[in-house]
Every structure is written in structure tokens, then in C-alpha cells.
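Researcher: We're teaching a course module on how sequence relates to structure. For the next exercise, students receive a sequence and then see the predicted structure as C-alpha cells, so they can try to spot secondary structure elements on their own. Here is the exercise chain.
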Amino acid sequence: MKDVKIDETWKTVLKTEFKKPYWEELIEFVRKQYLSGKVYPPAKNIFRAFDLCPLDKVKVVIVGQDPYHGEKQANGLSFAVNDGITLPPSLKNIYKEIKNDLGITPLPSGDLSRWARQGVLMLNSVLTVSAGNPASHKDKGWEIFTDAVIKSLNENRKNIVYLLWGKYAQTKGEIINREKNLVLISAHPSPYSAQLFFGKHHFSLCNNYLEEHEMKAIDWR
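Model: And here is the predicted structure for the students to work with:
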């Protein structure tokens, strides 16, 4: 894959990744999956999180695992679903915490591109999945790539707020420089652990930090 269709700011800092053997193997695997069955998100949306949120615009990073595997759900942004699709339980809980924390009611749509355009990088660790088969593209190379994404942010940017919900995201964020950025951790917003997610005030803490560093707060509606 000589020409990776991804925002130019990201292509510049990640160009060495695209020349590594794991990348060739990953792209070959992904290509075969799209040719032989149904894979989410649609191929044009694999790098949507990066295209909506260029490297120099990132203010917040929300780390997820892999895309939703249901019909028409995944759209390339972690925790998000396409407009008109029923909100998954985790996203419902995120909206509930926003309302409790900030006193605002998020829009009913689960397409979180409205956040991404404000500088929220909604980063899944694995960027593709086979329909109806969660974690089916795990350990194929995506994790190496998205680790490189976090590493490049760590090296090129500062004063970013990282929202690491659940053990998986927290492990992925271990390399983040805590002195130059704000790292907020809690349980995952899924129904299994939501009681340990609620009440952490991550959204107000995030906005306070951004404003303290002379950046515009995120409108979490």
C-alpha cells in the first residue's frame, strides 16, 4: 500500500510505519477481509478519526478498543455510531455522565464527528472488524500502528487531555508523558463497570484544563 489515504499531518509523522513489514502484512490481511466478507467500518472510513482531527488540532484523545461489529454501526470513530442508529450502552452512559457533569444534554445522534471536528481524536486501538465477530482483527498489526499514533502525539504535541476508560485504554496510554499532558482514568462506561465511570467529572476536568492552557473548551453536546 504505497499511498495511504490519511490526513497529511498524520501521514507525515507516521510515514515510517507505512514502510515496516507489519504494515504490509496488516494491509494484506485487511484487504482480503474486505474482499471476502463484510467488514466494518466501510473502507473509506477506516482513517476517519484522523481525517476529521489532524495532528495539529488534537486537544483530547478518547481511546477505544475495536469498531462496533453490528450492521451500519461503526463509522471510524471510537464509541460513535452512524446517525440514526440506536445508541450502544457505553455511549448512552457517556451521554449520561456528560449531563450529570456539565448539566447539558448531548444531541441524540451517536455520530460524534461534531466532537472530532473540535479536536477530539476518537481513537480505536484496532481500526477494522468482521461483521458479527468482535475483536476478529485483533493482533494483526493495528495495535502497533495506533501505539505509534499515541507515541507521535507524545513526541510532537503537549497539553492534550487523554481520557482512558478501562484497563485496556489505560495500558495503551502508559507511554503518555503525564507532566506535559492531562491523563484522566476511570472504569469503562460499559454497563458492567459504569458505576465506577459515573461521577468522575472527566468532561469538566477536561474543559477546565483546556481553558487553563488557553484553548477553547469542547462543546460536548
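Model: If you want an answer key for the exercise: DSSP finds eight helices and six strands in the chain. The mean pLDDT is 97.
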